Every structure is written in structure tokens, then in C-alpha cells.
Input
Amino acid sequence: MRKIILTVLILILFFGFGCDQKTEEPSVDYRKGTQGIVMNFMTDMPPATMYDNMPIDLVVEIKNKGAYPQPNPITGWAINVISPTTKGIGTLYLSGFDNTLIVGMPKRIDIPQLEGQSPYNPEGGYDVVSFKGNILNFDSRNIDNYNANFLVTSCYKYETISSQTVCVDPEPYSTKEKTKVCTIPTSYSLSGGQGAPVAVTKIEETVLSNKIQFKIYLKNVGDGKVIDKNRLNIDCPYSLDYTNLNKVYVSGRVSGYSLSCRPNNPIILINGVGTVICTIPKPAMSKSAYTTPLQVKLEYGYSSSIQKGVEILNTP
Output
């Protein structure tokens, strides 16, 4: 009998322990920062000084320091489609050197599909790409040395997701005395970025007679160029001008309503900043103030560059 009782107690403790354990998601504020795709040349690949008649290998490290794209909740893989022919999140372009002296190096390579920072991957995706070629013999050209400059430019699609808790008060000017859970501030200030090179920096809310208006301030907070996402694979990086630069597409939701915004997309950034005015109908079913998240999505293309110099000498 004692063995039976002991066995029952062990089973109770085992199942009780199993039921009390909960798997909690990591608490990581991954939608912070002002970077997207970041590139660096790998040290000594190639070295600062080389000789002719040698192979050359230019290796670029790529990190996704932002929060886009997020893993697919079903498959766990990051989702981002730029075009049916694009294999990754974007493209790297190589230029700046004399391709009659250095031959065989590819002019473009797809950026690998790098997952953005997330609760389960706070560092974001990482990969390397290699531009390989050969240096020709300088003797036949009477060249003693050549200073090669390698310029690598990224062109990629990116998104910003901004979420700010706002106060929705259908009757902010009512003279009736009543307790409210919130009051509408002069503005909502958003600092530190949202894990992307374009950010929402401030929101101003105004309640009108039949709608609620949000003035949303945008800014290029990265070190690169904002590009019209629809022209990314056509014009970047060699045909960029005022027709395809500084254009952002804005959408969003608040309190179950989709934002209706003016001017129409795309929103144009001037000197890196821009504004858009979005509205929703005044909620008819609520007479009291309440808080709710205002979610804004920004879609755009982005481009940045890195440069490396290599001195190539004629072999003695």
C-alpha cells in the first residue's frame, strides 16, 4: 500500500510540475535602431597590397541590423519578395575598377535572404558574399602599379513597422465632467528608430467634427538613400534621380480602421524628412476616451555603399 501511495504522489508531482511550466517568449525590443542591411569588407580579403597575375577575392560581410523581414509564423522562414527573379532581399553591385585590368569579377550578386532581428534572433541575419576575379599581367601594358577602388552598393527593399499607443477621445472638447483614462497630448514623440533606416519620429493627433486626424512625421535616419520601391530593380544604383528617390509608401491601422492618407502614395521626403496626414472616422460606438495602438507601415527601397582601395604592383 505504501508503494502505491508513493507512486501516486510521484505521478501527481510530475504532472503538476509539467502543467505549471509555461514557455514564455523572449522579451526583446527588436524594433529599435536606425539600420537595415549593413555591409563591411572582410579584413585582408583582399589585402591592401597585391601583385599582378594573381587571383583576387573581394569578400563582403552582410548583416541585417533591422527588424524586416520577420519569420513566417507557419514555416519559420523570412518572407520578402521583390520580384519573381529575385532570390534574396536585394542586390549588391560592384563597380569603380578597371575591368580590363581585373577580369572575371561579377558585377552583381543577390543579397542572401537575411532574416531581420526578432525575439528569437536579436542579432539579425548574417552572411558573406564573394566577388572573385583575376588580375592580368601588367608587363604587356607597361604598368608599374594600379590603385584599384572597389565600390559595393546595396539596393534592397525594406519596411518599417511603427506602433504607438494613442488616446482616442471622441469628445475631447465636451463640457460634461467625466473621468477619462487618457487625454490627447500635444504630440507623441518616437525616438530611437523602429529597427529600420526610415522612421516615424512624431505623431500629432487632432479630433475634428466627424473624424480623427493623425499627422505623421517621417525621416530617413540611416546613412543611405531612400528609393521608390517600384523602381528599385530598374533604376538602382546607376539611374537614380528626383523621379525615383526619396519616395515612401505609407499605410496603417488604428482602432479597427485603415488609415486614409493624403497626399497619395508615395510620400516624398525633402531633405530626408516628410509628413503625411491620415484620418479615420470618429468611432460612433464610443463616447468615452480609450487607448489603442496606432500602427504605421512604411515601404520603400534603400541603398548604401562601401568602398575599399587596393594597390596592385607589377611583380618584380
